[in-house]
Amino acid sequence: MSALRPFHIAFPVRDLESSRAFYGGVLGCPEGRSSDEWVDFNLYGHQIVAHIAPIPERPEPDHSNAVDGHDVPVPHFGIVLTMDDWRALAERVTAAGVEFVIEPYIRFEGQPGEQGTMFFLDPSGNALEFKAFEDLSSLFAK
């Protein structure tokens, strides 16, 4: 298998200023190219692009599924971090006063695929998950 390549995702946001404040300020993502309708961010080496789009006001994600006793919002996106980076991000997001959908915790503790995970929403209501493994080889463990 070849080396892992950067991932790209484009997602809808209500406005660019709150997106810049959240992704650039709270999450610390460097900004790349932009226009009046979109902005690129570098999310740990991956390209995420916030595009202005009509988004209905929604208090919560469209759906959720039960995973390890928590209601996981669907859809969502995020990244797998090192455990140190995950802990640092959890502290940063907490300090910024971001409300968690699922607070940082260890999922599947003592089982294959044990991982740190946390979920929260961006200002436009997009659900984000950040996770980490002590042993990355357990990412796809059954």
UniProtKB/TrEMBL annotation:
InterPro entries: Glyas_Bleomycin-R_OHBP_Dase (IPR029068), Glyas_Fos-R_dOase_dom (IPR004360), VOC_core (IPR037523). Coiled coil: none annotated. Gene3D superfamilies: 2,3-Dihydroxybiphenyl 1,2-Dioxygenase, domain 1. PROSITE patterns: VOC. Residues 5-133 form the VOC domain. SUPFAM superfamilies: Glyoxalase/Bleomycin resistance protein/Dihydroxybiphenyl dioxygenase (SSF54593). PANTHER family: PTHR39434, VOC DOMAIN-CONTAINING PROTEIN. This is Glyoxalase. It comes from Rubricoccus marinus.
